[in-house]
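Entry for magnesium ion complex. Fields follow.
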Amino acid sequence: MIDYTDDSKILRADYSHTDDFADDRNETSLRPQMLNEFLGQKKIKENLKVFIEAARNRTESLDHLFLIGPPGLGKTTLAQITAHELGAEFKVTSAPALEKPKDLAGILSTISERTVFFIDEIHRLKPAIEEMLYIAMEDYELDWIIGQGAAARTVRIPLPKFTLVGATTKAGMVSSPLISRFGIVQRFNFYTTDELAKIIKRSSSILNVSVDNDAAVLMASCARGTPRVANRILRRMRDFAQVLGNGMITKDIVFAGLNKLEIDNLGLEKYDREILLSIIKNFGGGPVGAETLAISICESIDTLEDYYEPYLIQCGLLQRTPRGRIVTEKAYKHLGLEGFKKNADEGFLF
Ligand SMILES: Nc1ncnc2c1ncn2[C@@H]1O[C@H](COP(=O)(O)OP(=O)(O)OP(=O)(O)O)[C@@H](O)[C@H]1O
Ligand SMILES: [Mg+2]
């Protein structure tokens, strides 16, 4: 049912936020296809199940759906599942790929009744495209300009009743007229260790690798509350188990592997610790503005805000305040830098 072929603006796959192309292709194979395979996010799942069933019984399109949450928590997956559960066609694009209104019009003109049309990174829509989308979402019509100059006129083309699924990591950057046109708004939470352990178990059986229970829990506890990270750790541990062990992923293999990957007991990677260290050493523990911080760690502000910060905040290591980012007491403790905290309190910079 997935149609990636008929327009260059329709994405062939979602390869965002991952650094290894082979892993990206594996990500597609690990992606759950139906709601009962989608583990965790109980509230979202329960609600969506009702809305999908109701729409299916009425043979109507599902109301437009807005998915909010940090990278790798399952927004694209859930959009695809929604189409599968509805037995509907699925079309995918992302806002940066829509450069001109005609790009959006091109896709809208190919959709059918009840199509699930997914726009990723919807906070990055250009204003002219967003306006076109308002009419498409609300009135199921497309405003199209025919002719040029004085002879130009607008015609309204009727569209089939479709479902728009918009996803974003930055809900604050989506305009309120756009948000108000979504009938269903769902916010993702980080996953618990228990949920991630179940996801790891499911993925390991798809990848055909054995993982003992303790090892699954240990990997899950270091996966930043994020299924994409859990699957990535699993694939790396499979490599370690194959080369350093007998192929089975045990707790000892995971300990050794995490150590080699420099992932600590909270699941922080080297870059997370560098962010905290930079605030402590260069800015006396904060507050420091996001832009300055991003420059100091040579990272883009988007990656800092979307990928690193939400988990550091969730762990209680970092706080966002109106004056900037501040590291918490827990961060000093985690890094074994309590002495730095005392000096910073007394006004010393390092
Ligand atoms: N609830 C889940 N159960 C099982 N696996 C999941 C779940 N959510 C996500 N995954 C796995 O994590 C991978 C990443 O999920 P997905 O691509 O849907 O995240 P995303 O929220 O769209 O991220 P991004 O913001 O980067 O686009 C999927 O390929 C899938 O294998
Ligand atoms: Mg996605």
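NOTE: The pocket of magnesium ion (ligand 2) is lined by residues 14, 16, 75-76, 120, 167 (CB under 6 Å).
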